[in-house]
Amino acid sequence: MIPVSAREGDVRTCQVNREIFFATVEAFQHAFDCREQGQEGIVTEVHAFHFWDIIGINALDRVVLKFRHHDIPVEIAGLNEASATLLPLGAH
Hints:
- This protein has 92 residues and is α/β, with parallel strands linked by helices.
- Helix content is 28%, strand content 21%.
- A 4-stranded mixed β-sheet has the order 1-2-3-4.
- The longest helix has 16 residues.
């Protein structure tokens, strides 16, 4: 499960279009390259699906933390209200 991505200038937008659950977590996390040259930001679009459990939220959190570790800002776009309830308070 690799997110569809496109780079516009120095910001990469990744559109996730499949469910994330225990069998897809590792592929999801490895699909994001925080060491890409000239990358100044990333937008992760998750409009198309729902995070069903904490496993999926944890995968998203690890991706965000990986980019933040390299001082690359991350925006999560399209997180539905039900999925947002699984995120730690104020995390993203």
